[in-house]
Amino acid sequence: MIENIRELNKVLETEPSAVALNILRGNSNFYLLVQ
C-alpha cells in the first residue's frame, strides 16, 4: 500500500511500466498502481 508521494515515486522508478492514478474521494486520497 502506498501511503505518500515519496513511496509512489520509488515504485515508479523501479517499475517503468507502472501507471499511477491519484484518486480523491471526499477527504481521502488514494493511489492506484497499475502494472
Structure description:
This is Serine protease. InterPro entries: PDZ_sf. Keywords: Hydrolase, Protease. One of its GO terms (molecular function) is peptidase activity. One of its GO terms (biological process) is proteolysis. The protein has a two-stranded antiparallel sheet with strand order 1-2. It is built from 1 helix and 2 strands, in the order H-E-E. The longest helix is centred in the first third of the chain and has 10 residues, at 5-14. The protein is elongated, with a radius of gyration of 10 Å. Helices cover 29% and strands 40% of the residues. The protein has one domain. The chain starts with a helix and ends with a strand. The protein is of the alpha+beta class.
The total domain count is 1
> What strand order characterises the main sheet?
1-2
Mean pLDDT: 80
Order of helices and strands: HEE
What structural class do helix, strand and pairing data support?
Answer: alpha+beta
How would the global form be characterised?
Answer: elongated
Low-confidence residue ranges: none
Largest sheet: 2 strands, antiparallel
Please report which band the strand proportion falls in: under 5%, 5-15%, 15-25%, 25-35%, 35-45% or over 45%.
35-45%
Q: Report the radius of gyration as a whole number of Å.
A: 10 Å
Number of helices: 1
Helix share bin: 25-40%
Keywords: Hydrolase, Protease
InterPro entries: PDZ_sf
Organism: Haemophilus influenzae
EC number: 3.4.21.107
